[in-house]
Amino acid sequence: MRIAVTGSIATDHLMTFPGRFADQLVADQLHTVSLSFLVDNLDVRRGGVAANICFGMGVLGTDPILVGAAGADFDEYRAWLDRHGVDTGSVRISEVLHTARFVCTTDEDHNQIGSFYTGAMSEARLIELKSVADRVGGLDLVSIGADDPEGMLRHTEECRSRGIPFAADFSQQIARMDGEEIRILLDGAAYLFSNEYEKGLIETKTGWSDEEILSRVGHRVTTLGARGVRIERAGHDPIEVGCPEEESKVDPTGVGDAFRAGFLSGLAWGVGLERAAQVGCMLATLVIETVGTQEYTLRRAHFMERFTKAYGDDAAGEVRAHLA
């Protein structure tokens, strides 16, 4: 099963200020703020929703196709993804813009000052899925993640016009989109991904009830945080899957992307929705135990031991063959 994942490709530049921002601000001078903070450390992490999802699918062995836009500074990141089983041949490289990046400084009270540079991500709208499909011999599913909004709309319309099944996964971009844009992005999707809060926001912005949305998508996949995930389909009982026990809770960043990576890998393996969700929850658990969205290591024996403990021998038997 050939799955393409569209969405952002970015790096995070994270710094720590050993003080309090509030102590550096003068109340009656906030309209002329000019400050520079001497920080203790810089942590550069690979990120972007599409790259995170593809990394997870790559380490699971499902050969994902990354579709997005990056800058000429992408070479090192590309090599990292290539080494971890990601097809980066359809990444557009901008001639004038850098790869998108998030630059953030956190103080000792965990307050943050950050900026997001869109950069090359704005060129995602120029990528045609037909050229991707022609290169890899066809596409069975396209997951359309948070990206340049115009690019998301164009990818969705192209999937419809070419009859390619697609998953709607607009996550971070939902806040800036209006109801009409959201209706366009989800209508006819084979899968609609969101967390619980986003689920309510989608219904509020579109004006469609839960039942109306279920009538317009194949499956509605709602992540529930520590409670796992719920999968709904019109006319069927919902499937609910819990999370494996965590060994530690280190950093929640990228947990949702890891779930999607595991779930999409399960679809590629053909193991069924419940098993796919279980793989997603297991991979998400590995990420929450690690600092960084692509810094975890998938040791197959360890993965299967914990998977078996959480979901039983029968479930493990179905999944083990694909990880072997």
What does this structure look like?
This protein has 324 residues and is an alpha/beta fold. It contains eleven helices and 14 strands. Helix 2 links the parallel strand 5 and strand 6. Helix 1 packs across helix 8 and helix 9 packs across helix 10. It is globular. The relative contact order is 0.13.
Shape: globular
- Count of helical regions: 11
What is the ordering of alpha helices and beta strands? EEEHEEHEEEHEHEHEHHEEEHHHH
Question: In angstroms, what separates the terminal alpha carbons?
Answer: 18 Å
Name the quaternary structure. single chain
Q: What is the average per-residue confidence, as pLDDT, rounded to a whole number?
A: 94
Q: Any idea what the radius of gyration is?
A: 20 Å
List how many beta strands DSSP finds: 14
Strand order of the largest sheet: 4-1-9-10-11-12-13-14
SS-derived structural category: alpha/beta
What can be said about the biggest beta sheet? 8 strands, mixed
Tags for this entry?
324 residues, alpha/beta, 8-stranded mixed sheet, 4-stranded mixed sheet, 20% strand, globular
